[in-house]
Design goal:
The protein is globular. The protein has 2 domains: 136 residues, Roll (Diaminopimelate Epimerase, Chain A, domain 1), CATH 3.10.310; 138 residues, Diaminopimelate Epimerase, Chain A, domain 1 (Roll), CATH 3.10.310. 21% of the residues lie in helices and 38% in strands. It has a 17-stranded mixed beta sheet that branches. The relative contact order is 0.18. The protein is α+β, with helices and mostly antiparallel strands.
Length: 291
């Protein structure tokens, strides 16, 4: 064991302790998978990442670094907020990308391109593995589990880009914020809920803060149902669904984490065939970790 550079980063926020935290070990060289998993479990965070040199194949394809992403109990091939947070930490630690304004990350799914937009970073949304409307029995179950009428679910779709999200749109952001889901009904479903913060039915409408949607993410946790503060994978899939269905403009801001006392902000922009999902990150803890 020896001291390794470490940062704890808050992602999808420019206000410390108001986003989604991530542990980043900036030198994972020589660590076994078991050691990485044990440290991740110890942090008691949703994810931890370990930065490594690219593989020879990755370097030849343009990768600037490699990252392994873990959540409690398992390794993930890709996740949104760990991607942004790891890139932020790598840059803050002196990382220099091969191409100005663009960072290429190697991870389990292959190469992921990030772009720099001032202080914000954005990743290209990965392709959906499953799309289209949900089965009606799922929609009815979700309505019961959320405690809303079936008629309050205005739109729904598969939002599966690895995590098996089921997306539903409610009538308003206020209704989204008031939800008290029932874990005994939702069971093992990963459910993403979105509601407009602007005028209902007016595409591109925003509230006074320029925010178009309120988002919440519910998934099975260790003690029943859990809620994620800010979710990159869900927002990426929601953007592909909403923009593709004409339910959202090609550029918008979503809020998430409000009910958890967070102030997550997700910036979405379609550029050609690519949807970019981004946000700010701040380093809250910097130093060394014994691993």
């Amino acid at each position: 064991m020896h001291q390794r550079p470490f940062q704890q980063v808050d992602v999808f926020t420019d206000q410390p302790y108001r986003g989604n935290p991530l542990a980043v070990v900036l030198d994972g060289t020589g660590l076994s998978t078991e050691a990485m998993q044990a440290f991740t479990n110890w942090t008691n965070l949703s994810e931890a990442t370990f930065v490594l040199p690219p593989t020879p194949e990755g370097r030849a394809a343009g990768a600037d670094y490699r990252v392994r992403i873990f959540c409690p109990g398992r390794e993930l091939p890709f996740a949104g907020h760990p991607t942004l947070g790891s890139c932020h930490a790598w840059l803050k630690a002196g990382g220099r990308p091969q191409a100005a304004g663009k960072v290429v990350q190697e991870c389990g799914v292959g190469l992921v391109t990030l772009r720099q937009d001032g202080e914000r970073l954005a990743f290209a949304a990965p392709p959906l593995l499953k799309s289209g409307p949900l089965p009606e029995e799922d929609v009815a179950l979700i309505a019961r589990g959320l405690g809303v009428a079936r008629s309050d679910i205005l739109h729904h779709a598969w939002c599966d880009n690895g995590p098996n999200w089921r997306g539903v749109m409610l009538r308003s952001a206020e209704q989204v914020r008031s939800l008290k889901p029932d874990a005994s009904i939702l069971g093992q479903l990963d459910v993403g809920v979105v509601g407009p913060r602007g005028k209902v039915g007016v595409i591109g409408s925003t509230d006074a803060d320029g925010i178009a949607f309120e988002v919440r993410a519910f998934f099975p946790g260790n003690n029943g149902l859990a809620e994620d503060p800010v979710t990159g994978s869900l927002n990426a899939a929601l953007a592909q669904w909403l923009i593709g269905a004409g339910l959202a403009p090609t550029q918008y801001v979503a809020a998430q984490g409000t009910c958890l006392g967070r102030a997550g902000r997700v910036y979405v922009q379609q550029d050609g065939d690519t949807i970019w999902v981004g946000g700010s990150s701040v380093t809250c803890v910097a130093g060394e970790v014994l691993l």
